[in-house]
Amino acid sequence: MLSIGSTVLTVEDITRAGDFWRAALGYVNRDEPGDDWVILDPPGKADWSAPGASLALSVTGYPQHYPPRIHLDLYAEDQAAEVERLLSLGAREVDWHDYPDDADWIVLEDTEGNRFCVVDTGPYPLG
């Protein structure tokens, strides 16, 4: 049986991208970053097989493809506060005009041009 181990984002500057995603998600380096690769895990994740989505950053020699064919959806109880926080960390707003009237997401991109959505979930259920 297969399972998804990590989502890999291509980057040009691994230090800048790692700083952004560690601050954005509260993740930590699984191991010491290399010159072209780092895996970020939720804090407390004991090893690669433990639950929790990992994010890997890989330096590539080619520019981002637009529009990207894959993106992350980040869930937020307080979308406005999270968008503001992410912008302060270096995210950028994407000039995108295809939002439907009832959109519950906002499209941003990280410091490397990787797009992601901040989805308004409202309060998380208790339990």
TrEMBL record:
VOC domain span: 3-121
PANTHER family (UniProt xref): CONSERVED PROTEIN, HYPOTHETICAL FUSION PROTEIN
Name under which the protein is recorded: VOC family protein
PROSITE patterns in the cross-refs: VOC (PS51819)
Domain of life: Bacteria
Organism: Microbacterium ureisolvens
InterPro entries xrefs: Glyas_Bleomycin-R_OHBP_Dase, Glyoxalase_6, VOC_core
